[in-house]
Amino acid sequence: MNAIEILPHLNAGLNAAAAVCLGIGFVLIRLGAKRAHRNFMLTAAGISGLFLISYVTLRFFAPIFAFQGEGAIRIFYFILLASHVVMAMAIVPLAGLTLYRGLSGKFDQHRRIARWTWPVWMYVSITGIAVYLMLYQFFPASKVAGLSLV
Fold first, then answer.
1. Inter-axis angle of helices 72-103 and 34-61, to 10 degrees?
2. Contact indicator for 123, 87 with CB cutoff of 8 Å
3. Whether the Cβ atoms of residue 78 and residue 66 lie closer than 8 Å to each other
4. 3 state SS of 50
5. Helix (H, G, I), strand (E, B) or coil at 45
6. What stretch of H or E contains 43?
7. Consecutive H or E run containing 23
8. How far apart are CA 125 and CA 23, in angstroms?
9. Cα(first)–Cα(last) distance of the chain, in Å?
10. What is the C-alpha to C-alpha distance for residues 76 and 92, in angstroms, rounded to an integer?
11. Ramachandran assignment for 146, one of left (phi > 0), alpha (psi -120 to 50 degrees), beta (any other)
12. What pLDDT is attached to residue 144?
């Protein structure tokens, strides 16, 4: 297995790690542990940044794979994928703004936008794992173009 072949699995792991950090960060702020909350949310942001680099690398060097599921599961997959992609595009500026407001001490503004950012970010992380499982594990994909991952 070469470096590019590892990236889908790495990306799923990064999504899982980000989701765990997001969940812990959420619990910590509810408990009033602001410093620990900040640290976990910054860790989630760092992990998500690594994911983005890995994902862009994968898309640049690896082939596109066709989803192999049929019937209702195929419809479900593409609805899930579409919602994941739309929300993933939104989360980059949304998370950036939320982090900026928190780090700059604008806590009222941070709290207001974080109520939107957190569920979208968590959704993107979890659906990223679901897309990975469906495309690479449950319904192993076939290559459409480019390099082979098998």
1. 130
2. yes
3. no
4. helix
5. helix
6. helix 34-61
7. helix 3-30
8. 11
9. 8
10. 25
11. left
12. 52
CA-nearest of 88, 74, 82 to 134 is: 74
List, as one string, the DSSP characters of 81-100.
HHHHHHHHHHHHHHHHHHHH
Sign of the C-alpha dihedral computed for residues 45, 123, 116 and 25 taken in this order = negative
- 13-52 pLDDT, tens digit each: 999 999 999 999 999 999 999 999 999 999 999 999 999 9
Q: H-helix or E-strand containing 67?
A: none
How far is residue 17's CA from residue 24's CA, in Å, rounded to a whole number?
11
Interatomic CA distance for residues 16 and 91, integer angstroms: 16
Domains of the chain: 3-145 (1.20.120.80)
pLDDT in tens, 120-130: 999 999 999 99
Please, what is the angle between helix 34-61 and helix 3-30, to 10°?
160
